[in-house]
Amino acid sequence: MAGGQQRGAPGGPERVALKKEIGLVSACAIIIGNIIGSGIFISPKGVLEHTGSVGLALIIWVLGGGVAALGSLCYAELGVTIPKSGGDYSYVTEVFGGLAGFLLLWSAVLIMYPTSLAVIALTFSNYVLQPVFPNCIPPYNASRILSMVCLLLLTWVNSSSVRWATRIQDIFTAGKLLALALIIIVGFIQIFKGNYKELTPSNAFNFWMTPSVGHLALAFLQGSFAFSGWNFLNYVTEELVDPRRNLPRAIFISIPLVTFVYTFTNIAYFTAMSPQELLSSNAVAVTFGEKLLGYFSWVMPVSVALSTFGGINGYLFTSSRLCFSGAREGHLPSLLAMIHVKHCTPIPALLVCCLATLIIMLVGDTYTLINYVSFINYLCYGVTIIGLIVLRWKKPKIFRPIKVNLLIPITYLAFWAFLLIFSLYSEPVVCGVGLIIILTGVPVFFLGVYWRNKPKCVNRLIESMTCWGQKLCFVVYPQGGGAEEEEAPSARSWRPASETAARK
């Protein structure tokens, strides 16, 4: 892994650029750390209550991992074919044009990532405060304040050093995997002792209700959302060491590992609890620890807190790179495309992500917003993978280090279309609000990006604000060739004409 600022030539002046500090281990940690949040520790009952049996619930978990694997294979091809940071946004912009890319960026920056970050931070604070308030829910203000302190701390860490941020991700991902490994090992011990009554075929497929197609779709949605985050490495492609090699390797290692962990963690739960006990528990891992770990039952709430802390770090790291990529394409103010002259970190983008999350925490109904986020997130996955097929048609001769069989994106899109149609049918209000949130970006695009000949007073205002922001954050544009300097032909509308000319 590289350290310090990059140099243009031996003995030459230092240049300010994004540093390639993410190796294979850190790449795997980003994927695993973002997928495995608090859900597997707290509430895997969502799948169970919609399937009506233990056996079918386990099948859904495996199937969810399989579909995530199909999607990640498609993203591996896109990531090495279009080796730019920004993930979904960069691919959609490349394939479908500026408006489609901007709408994805708009919904992600406005609501998707701030809301997800807020929920993870609040979960962290609730579990940290649980020992202090053992017999009641932690006070609202205490929970919010601790969440904000955690968010500000990790924003500072990410602003100070890419290496520190990746080390935190490595350590906390290892911690949550160790906690899940403990659950799995205890589960195997239970099986060897003969405590696997609920896992025998006669009991595992003993349905206490007959699941309808709607129930199965809801169960699959729960399982699919538990795997969300598998595409996050694609947001930081330019900071990967040898991305054409390490991006697909990290995906191929991480997705099967997470699927294995999720499935065997659920099996372990059923060695200690009946389906009815699991459904009645609000924190399944904590109940598991209380029943089997005895004195060491405190390990489970601590594991949830550590897991969510690492999740906050991972979301901040990747979402800031999305803002950075959007600004570089001209879809967000140019200040967000700048990095610190010494630390080479995108401080303005990190501050915007932090500020948006703080606003959601203070004024938003976080747990209501997360319903809209889930729909928007799932919609973005499908549109991006449709882009892979369109790119095959538009640019058949482009260099593709990885080229997946077309059956893989088609199979993924079949599952995606089924769940999307069912979501529209069963939750029309949630889906409708999600679509409205996306479409509010249309007028913003035409005013901020498409309208190039803005009045001089507007350009002067943008210029002065950008200059003020540069002085405050001590940031400049990344230097040197490559992806850092690429811009779409129509992507300079947020910058005043004088600034654009200077960059040329």
Which tags fit this structure?
single chain; 504 residues; mainly alpha; two-stranded antiparallel sheet; globular; disordered N terminus
Summarize the structure in words.
It is a single chain. By secondary structure, the protein is mainly alpha-helical. Helices cover 69% and strands 2% of the residues. The protein is built from 21 helices and four strands. It has helices at residues 24-35, 39-42, 45-51, 54-81, 88-96, 98-129, 140-160, 162-192, 201-204, 213-226, 243-272, 275-280, 284-292, 299-328, 347-363, 366-394, 407-426, 428-439, 441-450, 456-473, 497-503, and strands spanning 6-7, 14-15, 339-340, 475-476. The protein has a two-stranded antiparallel ribbon with strand order 1-2. A two-stranded antiparallel sheet has the order 3-4. The protein starts with 5 loop residues before the first strand and ends with a helix.
